Amino acid sequence: MIQSRREQFDALFPSEPAFRWNQIEDAFFTSAKGWDDVTTISKSMREALTVIPWMSVEPQTIQVSLKGDTHKALLKVADEKEIETVLMKNRRGAWTICVSSQVGCAMRCGFCATGKMGLTRSLIADEIIDQYRFWQSYLTTQPPNHPTPSRISNIVFMGMGEPLANYEEVKKTLNLILKYTDIGRTRITVSTVGVLPRLEQILTDRDWPHIRLAVSLHSAIEETRKKIVPTSYDEFLPKLEDWAKRYLQTFGNRRHHLTFEYVMLKGVNDTPEHARALAKFVNHIGNVRVNLIPYNLTDCEFEKSSDSTIQEFLEILHAKHLIATTRRTMGEDIAAACGQLIVVANKPSID
Ligand code: SAH
User: Fold this and answer.
1) How wide is the angle at C-alpha 158 spanned by C-alphas 155 and 163, nearest 5°?
2) I need a labelling partner for 173 at 20 to 30 A (CA). Which of 166, 210, 292, 313 fits?
3) Domain segments of the chain: what residues?
4) Angle formed by the axes of helices 167-180 and 125-141, to 10°?
5) DSSP 3-state assignment of 17?
């Protein structure tokens, strides 16, 4: 297990009062560039702290899409492992970052490049938070060519890994982001394949902050889902429906809905029959929005649904009164779109 900065601090200064760590943590979210800039603590403590890395992630390469609206960084974390994280311009005139929660992923979804890597390890909260800190500092120190604000307004947990398979560290990350940044609960989305025991835990966990949740449904027909999401639980759909109803009863309101993500795979889950099954499923639950994701090319047997198929699918959902949208695809030219994040040894870079 990688030692967190907090654990390293406590080992160095076992008898410091608790507020000292808060002063330090606070500085992580300011423009401070290193321990030397943390003037709220003594010089001797600053010097002693230099043995703890100020940043737990180190950029290896940064790629920028031709349009300049998507930036992807390959970051080295402890024990020489690597992860990817993405910065995307959003419609709010600010940036959305897409963070990774694990090195690789154990879920093996057939259409996802990260799934092919298998799981190496989970990230600790420092390493997830530092993806935010990395982009924040990138935006202020290396502004992209065109005039643009440097503010990160949204965070999505849609990078490498299954966030709910790393529940405690993701929860810590969320609470710190909410404490130290101006990003509110409705601007953070955790996307999950649907780890039912953890979804259940969220219902009663007082420390779980109610950010937005997106469940990767991908099919409302059990056999189809099992085919494309092999880790799908038996009888996933009725169990998800039951959970979603209870979740919405407790936490749902006009501003707080659930999202179901649905990757559109040609001939697999994109037929009118699938659309009708999805509409029926969602209508049983209630306050759910559907986000169709055009399939981004990865090294696998699936093909992308055509634009007209996606349009027809969407029309069926709308006719059944669903709130459904299609996700904008960004950063395909630098393999930074959903499901394209993969770390390959010795991959050539174009930074
Ligand atoms: N493990 C989380 C996060 C995955 S990435 C989850 O399963 O939700 C975010 C979304 O992108 C998920 O809905 C995922 O299924 C989807 N995705 C994965 N590979 C994709 C691909 N090649 N094209 C489009 N979407 C993909």
Assistant:
1) 95
2) 292
3) 1-54, 55-334
4) 40
5) coil
Atom of ligand 1 nearest to the CA of 162: 1
Question: How far does the centroid of ligand 1 lie from the alpha carbon of residue 314, in Å?
Answer: 19
- Determine the residue type at 62: I
Residue 99 token pair: 């963070």
As a whole number of Å, the CA-based R_g of the chain is 21
Closest listed residue to residue 279, CA positions, set 268, 267, 292, 293 = 292
pLDDT, residue 143, reads: 60
Encode pLDDT of 69-121 as tens digits.
999 999 999 999 999 999 999 988 899 999 999 999 999 999 999 988 899 99
In angstroms, what CA-CA distances link 72 with 77, 194, 336? Answer: 16, 26, 6
| Cβ–ligand 1 contact at 111 (below 6 Å) | yes
- For the domain made up of 55-334, the CATH class stated in words is alpha beta
Q: Is the CB of 109 under 6 A from ligand 1?
A: yes
- What does the mean pLDDT of the chain come to? 93
- The tens digit of pLDDT for each residue in 13-42 reads 999 999 999 999 999 999 899 999 999 999
